[in-house]
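Re: the multi-chain job from yesterday

Posting the exact lines I submitted so nobody has to dig through the queue logs.
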Amino acid sequence: MTTQTAPCPECEADVRIPAGAMQNELISCPDCGAELEILNLNPLELALAPDVEEDWGE
Ligand SMILES: [Zn+2]
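And the result, structure tokens for all chains:
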């Protein structure tokens, strides 16, 4: 099995997708630290995960 990589949507660094990663899984970019969501595994597609803000609600 080959290690898959996809470009980070934030900084375009190659982000390694862990073996056995699932769709909708969250990973973080090792380069810029952005939280990324695996939108699609085939073809591999990453998107920035929605920000979890402290001021959410209340
Ligand atoms: Zn990045």
